[in-house]
Amino acid sequence: MRRFWGFLAGGLLVALLLAGVVSNFASPHPDGLDSSLREGCTVDADGEITGGSCPAQQEKEHEIGGPLADYGIAGIDNDVLSTGLSGVLGVLLTFALAGGAFWLFRRRDTDPTPQQVDPTQEPLDADRSGTPASSQG
Amino acid sequence: MENLAMHISNGIINGPVAALFAVIALVAMALAVHRGRQDLDDRLAPMAGLVAAFIFAVQMLNFPIFTAGVSGHLLGGALAAMLVGPWVGALCIAVVLVVQALVFGDGGVAMLGLSITNMGVIAVAVAYLLIALLLRVLPRTPAGLAVTAFVAALVSVVVAAMGFVLQYWLGGTADLGGNLAGLAGTMAVSHLFIGIGEGLITATTVVTVAKVRPDLVYALRARKPVSPASVPAVGGVR
To answer: PDGLE domain location, by residue (chain A) (predicted)?
Structure first.
């Protein structure tokens, strides 16, 4: 199933390009949730609340923050580089975490249908070729 | 780059309600692990990793909507449900939200249960119910698949937005002066437009995958047990 892994690599490449490059063309405006919570407040050009009364005023600090907070990399002043790199790291981290966890949790022994022959099952094929199933090769 | 945060911030919903939804989300995810394991074979596992990574990427791409000064982004529930099924799909969304909260400071960690409930449970469940229904009614053509993806995505986004309104009604920290309907209205209208974007992205992605590797689209594969049984019955063709 080499084509499957090719598809997977292609999909990952698309995700990396979207998060690494296209993300810099994303709209800077607040999203539907954020803007709904700002309804009733006046906001300046930088998006800071300047007056009025709205749910967003109750916002509190994030517990962690961290070097990648707000989809940037602390210490990199170039916005394009900072956003793009943080996006690439996020895609790789999400793929590793989700893919790794799903791989560990995957169904193994049950229902070994012959259609689902994967590269991971090649050792089984090697074993089978060692058994005297066919008299000569 | 001030506005890149997109999920519920700390302080918006009070502690007890956030904790209640953390429990709801945990129970739902435990069920998803239990049921999703049946779906997770050697191919779906890496595919689901890709779906999670792809949703993370596309969530960064805020697109403008018709309302001035407001943007939207993919939630991904319908996309995940279509490509990897409801159980594994819900887990994909949860992983994305956990990474965003823990690593990218997006969405309070204490608010995670609320977000996972809205986008990982409500949106995925609504989307999958619609997918199961529409795929039965619509023709099995790219157009039928696109319409299914579009409608499931659009409706799931609006219902997920109403999930937040419910949470705000239960535990919102600001006194709206009885004007919850106002919040519901702005959330509904903005997410109707966001849902159109979500529908277009979901339909495009699902149809593309279906053209390249139809066997990797869970929603199509799940229907297959019907066709192999009927194929031998047609025996006369051969």
So the answer is: 6-107
